[in-house]
Amino acid sequence: MPKKVVVKITELTKQHNISLRELSRLSDVRHAALSELSNGKRENINFSHIERIAEALNIEDIREIIDLVEE
Hints:
Blueprint lengths: L2 E5 L1 H7 L4 H8 L3 H8 L8 H10 L9 E5 L1
Antiparallel strand pairs: 1-2
C-alpha cells in the first residue's frame, strides 16, 4: 500500500492550545502554508517550516509533527 507523509498541524494546535494564526506568528510560517499542510493540500513539505514549528513549540521529536500513514 502507498504511504503518505502527514503534517499534524491540527493536533499540534489543539495540544498546545493555540490557533493556526498564533502558530503562524510563532513559527514565522505563512498562515496559508500551515492551512494547506493542515488540510493535506500541499504536495511538498518545506523542512525549514518543520524546523520552525518545532522550535516555536519546543518540540524535540519530529514524530510529534509528522507521521507516515497508509493512503
